[in-house]
Design a protein that fits this description.
alpha+beta, Fumarylacetoacetate hydrolase, domain 2, twelve-stranded mixed beta sheet, SH3 type barrels
Length: about 325
């Protein structure tokens, strides 16, 4: 199933996306019509907390009542929101091409910011550095803010302290089952589903602050900068998550393309690592890290005021946002 959170007539609901991604079926209304409590369909986190029984009931409701036009709305007539406000967000670095190219891109951005044309010319002529060994020894990740999440078609406000704005093409998993010391063989059972993540980044700020060996912080954390959506695709429907093609478009033009096949560590390995002597909770989100060629720091073509960014993932959908520069305060 594709599960969305949306607003209709002033109410926030969760539902099943269907009709070739043109309609959404109201799970709360369907459960209420069937009699009994609809509490487990009050929010996406409530559904996740209900475990397999809640997911099975959602499927059964749609199978039984999905043809009832009174329980569905056109997606064009509702406001899609972020599919959930995660209890916590962790984001990884899992793609070699991105890591190697973004390191070079960061060096070029620093030289550009310093006005060092000689350094820029030197960097243009050098081959990419090999990937550091640490990235193959263990999954590397950071924790980011779940309080700044927004969803599809939301306007991303360019932070006033930044002059260099970037998109990042990622996907990720929503955890569906709480646990600790989760073995790789059992880790997939803890995945509720998959969604798209645009990790918008104020690159000039990020380059400065990470010289302090901590972060990223304000390079990533600004209101609305973590974008999830357009919905969550459940594990059973996605099939093999490591065979998905993806691309990023800016104003309709393809800026980069890649594949989830290139992950150094898969989500099962990542979950096993994260959960060592630590409880991973249902409702958390874990990002894959940026797919190679999936951001401007790799290509050198950064965002401009008013640009529309689309992340398009096979079997998931399209996450679309407009970036708007704010007036200086």
């Amino acid at each position: 199933m594709k599960l969305a959170t949306y607003r209709s007539n002033g109410e926030t609901r969760i539902g099943v996306v269907h009709g070739a991604d043109t309609k959404v079926f109201d799970l709360h209304a369907a459960r209420s019509r069937s009699g009994g409590s609809a509490e487990r369909f009050a929010s996406m986190l409530s559904l996740i907390d209900g475990g397999d029984a809640a997911l099975d009931e959602a499927r059964a409701l749609f199978d039984r009542l999905g043809s009832d036009e009174g329980l569905s709305a056109a997606l064009a007539d509702v406001e899609l929101l972020a599919p959930l406000r995660p209890r916590q967000m962790r984001d990884c670095m899992s793609f070699e091409k991105h890591m190697r190219q973004s390191k070079r891109g960061g060096e070029k951005l620093m030289a550009r910011m310093a006005g060092d044309t000689a350094k820029l010319a030197e960097l243009e002529g050098k081959p990419l550095a090999p990937l550091e060994d640490i990235y193959r020894q263990m999954p590397i990740y950071y924790i980011t803010s779940s309080l700044i999440v927004q969803g599809p078609d939301a306007v991303v406000k360019w932070p006033r302290y930044s002059k260099v704005m970037d998109y990042e093409m990622e996907f990720g998993v929503v955890i569906g089952r709480t646990g600790a010391d989760i073995g790789e063989a059992r880790a997939r059972d803890h995945i509720f589903g998959y969604t798209i993540f645009n990790d918008f980044s104020a690159r000039d700020q990020q380059m400065l602050e990470m010289q302090g060996w901590l972060g990223p912080s304000k390079g990533k954390c600004f209101d609305g900068g973590n974008v999830l959506g357009p919905w969550i695709v459940t594990r059973d429907e996605i099939g093999d998550p490591y065979s998905l093609d993806a691309c990023v478009r800016v104003n309709g033009d393809v800026r980069g393309a890649g594949t989830t096949r290139d992950m150094i560590f898969d989500f099962e390995q990542i979950i096993a690592h994260m959960s060592r002597d630590e409880t991973i909770h249902a409702g958390e989100f874990i990002g894959s890290g940026t797919i190679g060629n999936g951001c401007a720091i790799e290509t050198g073509t950064y965002l401009e005021d008013g640009d529309v960014v689309e992340l398009d993932f096979e079997k998931i959908g399209v996450l679309r946002n407009k970036v708007v520069r704010q007036a200086a305060s």
